[in-house]
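Reviewers asked in the last cycle whether our approach scales beyond single polypeptides. To address this, we selected a multi-component target totalling 557 residues and predicted its structure end to end. The input consisted of the following lines:
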Amino acid sequence: MHVTLSIWQALLIALWVALVESRILGFSTLTMRFSPLMTGMMVGFIMGDIKQAMIVTAAIQLVYMGFVAPGGALPAEPCIATAIAVPVALLGHMSPQGAIAIAVPVGLLGSYLYQFRFFLNTFALKPMDKYAREGNARGLGFAIMGIPTLISFALFIPLMFIALYFGAPVISGLVANIEHGTLIHVLNSVGGGLAALGIAVIMQVIGKKQLLPFFFLAYFMSVAFAKLDISMTIYAIFGAIFAILYVTFTSKKSTN
Amino acid sequence: MSEEVAATNADVQASEDVQAEEHRIPQPDKITNKDLMKSWFGWWWANEVPHTFDRMLAPAFCFGLIPTLKKLYKDKAELAKAFQRHLLFFNTQATWGGGTLTGVTISLEEARAKALANGEEPISEDMINNTKVGLMGPLAGIGDSIDSGTVQYIFIAIFLPFAQKGNFMGALLPFLCFAIATFTYGYYFTKMGYSLGRAAAKEIMTGGRMAGIIDGLGVLGLYMMGILAGQYIKIQSYLKFTISKKTFDVQDILNTILPGILPLFAVLMLYWYFQKQGLKITRGLIYLTIALVALSIFYII
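The resulting structure, written as structure tokens, was:
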């Protein structure tokens, strides 16, 4: 089975994926990213077969039903999965189920790409500190919106174009090759560890050493109760109670 | 009306004082619904675009506040300080968390800007930071389950039958409904956060309980950081070695000593580094990345 798209079709689909994955269209891109529907529709328009594209997409949607991303990390990228699987299904006259088989591994690879975008942002967004120090609103705005958009486009357009133009078999092979490789492991470890930085910064900014026990209290609460899957709201209620108790008792002491 | 006249007289007085004295901070402009909409839209638009590992969504939050902060702080140094404090670690959900906190933050910043201009004791930077940090987690918890977990799938479920029949409205309608609904109630949350925050700011400024409230928010802030550290930071050892046919799994050994010791170690090392060297975030980022890459290449973590 030989699968190809025209250069323009591949480029347009790649551009759409970059628009969604860069999130440049605002918060609503959440549902474009989590749900395959809009991507399936765009692929249908570009390939001139909306009806069949929607039928395949609806089948993929059922796989990804109920996907949510607490804290921003998604275990798969339905948008990327759909952008690859629907063209393959349309050109190869495959069943929706066959399309799902392609979509799932591609979606997995897509989630690594999305993480890689965070990784690049982490370093490339540094100029915003300089503009903030100078009180330069225009420069700050560009650093916050312009730089990450350029990064996303440079990352997603070439990769998606190559993937679409040269066919999905290449991708499934690639996924199998690097899924358990060192590169992905390093990327995961760096991604998993870097959150420590932001948290340490806030601890330094809050800056009251005598309050640090509350950090340790909360840390070991969340480690000890990890298996109980306690919601953030419950933790926050505990935190608010600790805060009220602390203020009440310390202010009593000073008035006595 | 008479109050307003009195206020403008005071403004005139203040602006004359500015000419008389150097380095008086100019009065902030009034915050209108249009400003709230601008900031809400800025946050809504930027939202996930500048997501980074170390600050999460802070740049997007700062981006939303840019037009409002420019109206509040005519003084370049204060504006720069405001930009910098809103670039620190921040992560929340877009509408319930981000909308509400955009409103609350604007009200606190407005109170601070006014107090600075009038030469009164202003709401401190700590207070603003701690409020954001304390509220972002719980609001995100609510928002994630409602917006992306429920609202989104209600619309998808309603219109999926269209898609299954091959009609593109099955894709377009759930998207439009989700976009319009979340944008609308997110703006409502921004306005609500603003009025709630204004009432709270007034109470704080007149009540003379500032120190206690800052401490309380500090407790809540550090506590929420502890919870986030436990949930977000993923560092574990993959090191295994065999001595006389017995395999030792380093992570298992660490778990018997103290579960969660590695993420805690990373945070405390960075905290200690900032204590010693000042808040050198870029250096901290580079050192941490080098350490993580070096350790993970050899599968130590």
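Confidence is low (pLDDT under 50) at residues 1-22 of chain B. We regard this as preliminary and will revisit it once experimental data from Aim 1 are available.
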